[in-house]
Amino acid sequence: MKVAYWPGCVSRGFTPELHGSMAKVAPLLDLELIELDRACCTGAGVIAEHNQELADTLNARTFALAQRTDGAMMMNICSTCQGAQSECQERLDANTDYRRHINENLADEGLTYEKGLTNKNFLWMLVEEIGLDTLKSKVRRPLTNLKVGPFYGCYIVRPVHRLHIDAEHPRDRYMHMVIEALGGTVIDYAGVYKCCGFPIITMNKQASLKMTGRHVGDAIDAHADCLVVPCPLCHLNLDLQQPGAAKEVGRELGLPVLHLPQLVGLALGLSPKELGMSKHVVRPTSVIDWSSSVVAGAPA
Amino acid sequence: MPEYLLKIRRFDPKSGKAAYWDEHSIELGEKQSVLDAILKVRDEVDGSVGIRCSCQQAICGSCGVRMNGKPGLACNTHLDDAAARAHGAGWTPPASGEPPVIEVEPMGNMPVIRDLIVDMDAVHWKKIQRVTPYLVNKQPIPEREYIVPMESMVDITQTMACIQCGACVSDCLSMEIDPLFIGPAALAKAYRFAGDPRDADHQERLQDLSDDPHGIYDCTHCFNCIDACPKEVAPMSQIMRLRRKAGSDHKIVDPNNGHRHEDAFVTLVRDYGLLNEAELLPRSYGGNSWFGKFHPAAGKELMSSLGTVVTGVMRGKMSPKIALLGHKLPKSDLAALKKLYARIEGRSQRVELNLYISGYEDDPEPSSGEGVKSASTESETS
After folding, report:
1. Looking at beta carbons, which residues of chain A come within 8 Å of B243?
2. What is the DSSP string of B64-75?
C-alpha cells in the first residue's frame, strides 16, 4: 500500500531513531512511503494557539501536498502531529466557506485542499489498514515474555469525538491489541492515558518531570520491561529526560522506552541496532537481552 | 431489562476505615442514567450512600462523579455508555454472559467528604474565586445599557454554558501533579470576563494569569477537560484564547517563558519550515532571536540541562549538524511559507472559526443550538 508519509520534525531531529526505524519496518509491512519533504511543521497546537488561521493554512498546505501524491491516504508517526492536524482538519471539513477562505491563502502555490483526507497515525494503520491478522502472520520473533506498558499520551486518544473513537473504532485500545498481536504481554498501569509532561517543560519543568517520573515509576511498579510510545515528544520526556525525572520524584527509574515502529520491528525480526535502539538515553538493555535470547525464525 | 453490576466507591474519612467497593446487581433500562442506578440503591438497599444531586437534568451540576474512570454527570450518562468503557482501559466490550460493570467513584483532584461527595469548596470554588469571577464595570457606566458588538458576546457564550460541576477539574492532569494550577474551570471562567467588552480589567486579568507560575501557561494540552465537560465548554480552548489575547493582543511577556516559547516556535517554523529544537529551547528562555542563547537565563538553563544534552549527543540522538544548524525545508517552500505568514499575520483582525458556534455542516442541527450556522467566521480583536 502506498501512502503519503508525514514523518514530523522531531523524528528527523532529536529522535532520528524513529524515522530510521519506520523506514526499516515499512517494507516488511508492504507499506510504500511517499515522504512529504516539502511540508512544514504542524505547529503542534502552539501555532493554533497563536493564530488559528495560520495553523489551519499550514496544515491545509500539507494536506493538499498529500492529495497530489498517488498515495491512498496520509500517514504520520507522531501523535502530536496527528492531534494538531486532526484539529485543523475538523475545522476545514466542517465549513465550506472557511475551507474556501483557507484555500485562497494557498492559491499562490497552486494548491487546494479537498475535503475528506484520510490521515492516520501508524498505530491506526496497523489495526485498520494492515490488520492484526496480517501483522501476526509477519511476526518472526514473537514478543514472548516481554512485558510492555503502552503509553498512549494525549493527542491520539483525546478528544474522543474529533478522533472518531467509538465502540467500532476502539482506537484507545489499539496499542494493547498490537502488543498482544506481536506476542507480548500488556502491562496496565496508572499512566497509560496520561500526559508525559512535555508541553510544559519550558514553562514548569518541575511539574513536567514529575509527570514523567510518576508514569515511569508506576510502570516499573507494575513490572513492565519497557514502555512503547506513538509520539516522539513523549519519547523526549520519557527517555531523554528520564534521568532528570528520577531526581524529581526521588527514586531510581531506568525503564527503556521504545517507539512503536521499534517494537513492531523487533517482532518482525529486525535487530535492536538496526532499529536505532543504541541512540536511547535509557539503555534498553533488558529488551536487547530479551531479543538476543529469542532467535528470529520463519513467520509463524 | 438488562442487568448491571454497580460498584460504588464507599469511604467515610471519619470512620478511620479504608475505602471499599460496595457492589449491587441492578436491573434498569440501558438508557436510564447512572444516577438512576445510584438512587435505586440508596432508596431500596442502603440509605447511607452519599451522593449529591438535585435537578437530574444536567442543569444544576451537582452530581459530578467518575464512571468507569471517566468524569461526568451521573444524571446525563446512560448506563450502556458508562458500561462501554472499562475502567481506565478505553473501549472494551463486556465479557459475554457477564453483566457489564459500572464503577462509580468520587471525582478526582478534590478531597472526599463521604462516598461520592467531594469537597468542592476546598478546590473548585477556591479557584473560581481566584480569577475575579465577576464583571468589573468599564467606566463611565452608561446611563442605559452597554452597547457591545454581537460577535464579541457570541465569542463568550461557550464559557457561559459552564454549570460548575467540576468534571474538568476532576481529571485535569496538570492539577493532578501541581495542585496550585488554577485549572480548567476557573480559567474558562476567566475568559468569560477577559473576553467581555464591558469589562474594565482585561489588561490586569491577563497580566495576572500570565504572571502566575501556575497560570495559563501550565496547561499541558491533554484534552481531558474537553472530553469531561457535559456542556461542551472546552476549557482548554478557552485557555488557548487567554494565551492568544495575553501574548498577541496585550503583548504580555510572562516570567514563565510561555509567550517567549510560543513566539519562538512560530518564528522558527516560518524561518526553517521545521521545528528547530536546538534553537527553540534557548529562545524560550533567552528571547526570540539567534542571540537568545547568550542571554543569562538561557545560559542558566543550558547549564542545568548539560547532563541531558551531553548524553543525547553521545548517544547520537542529535547530530552536531542538526544541533547547530537545525533542519530546513527547500528554499522555494520557505519563500512560500514566508508569504503565507505575511498575508495572515498582516490582517487587521484574526480570522477564527469556532465550531461550537458555527456547528458542523454535516450535522442536522448546529451543535450549540445557537443557530448561527451561516456566520462562518468570527473575528476578534483586543
Report:
1. 49
2. EEEETTEEEEGG
Closest chain B C-alpha to A31 CA, distance in angstroms: 25
What is the distance between the alpha carbons of residues A105 and A111, in angstroms, rounded to a whole number?
Answer: 9
DSSP for B299-329?
A: HHHHHHTHHHHHHHHHTTSS-HHHHHH----
Cα–Cα distance, B247 to A113 (Å, whole number): 30
DSSP string, B337-351: HHHHHHHHHT-SSEE
CA separation, residue B84 to residues B36, B78, B94, B190, B320 (Å): 17, 10, 7, 35, 50
- How distant is the Cα of B100 from the closest Cα of chain A, in angstroms? 15
User: Which one of A50, A95, A97 has the shortest CB-CB distance to B248?
Assistant: A50
Measured distance CA(B118)–CA(B64) in Å, rounded = 9
Is B293 near chain A, with CB under 8 Å?
no
pLDDT digits (tens, 9 = 90+) for B2-25: 999 999 999 999 999 999 999 999
* Number of other residues whose CB lies within 10 A of the CB of residue B118: 24
Task: Residue B382: count other Cβ atoms within 10 Å of its Cβ.
Answer: 10
Kindly compute the dihedral angle of the four CA atoms of residues B270, B223, A52, B271, in this order, to the nearest 10 degrees: 0
| Residue B86 banded pLDDT, cuts 50, 70, 90 | low
Chain A, chain B: beta-carbon pairs less than 8 Å apart? 238
What SS3 string covers chain A?
CEEEEECCCHHHCCCHHHHHHHHHHHHHCCCEEEECCCCCCCCCCHHHHHCHHHHHHHHHHHHHHHHHCCCCCEEECCHHHHHHHHHHHHHHHHCHHHHHHHHHHHHHHCCCCCCCCCEEEHHHHHHHHHCHHHHHHCCCCCCCCCEEEECCCCCCCCCCCCCCCCCCCCHHHHHHHHHHHCCCEECCCCCCCCCCCHHHCCCCHHHHHHHHHHHHHHHHHCCCCEEEECCHHHHHHHHHCHHHHHHHHCCCCCCCEEEHHHHHHHHCCCCCCCCCHHHCCCCCHHHHHHHHHCCCCCCC
Using the Cβ of B319 and the Cβ atoms of chain A, whether some distance falls under 8 Å is answered with yes
> Is residue B194 within 8 Å of B242, Cβ to Cβ?
yes
The CA distance from A8 to the nearest CA of chain B, in Å, is 8
Other beta carbons less than 10 A from residue B130's beta carbon: 19
Instruction: Report CA-CA distances (Å) from B168 to A150, B112, B158, B297, B357.
Output: 24, 16, 15, 34, 21
Residues A71-90: what's their mean pLDDT?
97
The pair phi, psi for residue A8, each rounded to 5°, is: 85, 180
Q: What is the model's pTM?
A: 0.93
With 90 as the cut, is the pLDDT of residue B320 above it? no
Answer yes or no: are the C-beta atoms of B160 and B356 closer than 8 Å: no
> So what's the pLDDT on residue B311?
84
Contacts of B84 in chain A (CB under 8 A): 167
CA dihedral A100, A105, A110, A111 (to 10 degrees): -60
What distance in Å separates residue A166's CA from the closest CA in chain B? 7
The one-letter amino acid code at B170 reads S
Is B77 near chain A, with CB under 8 Å?
A: no
CB B71 within 8 A of CB A193: no
Return the SS3 of A131: coil
How would you class B276 by CB atoms within 10 Å of its CB: exposed for 0-12, middle for 13-18, buried for 19 or more?
Answer: buried
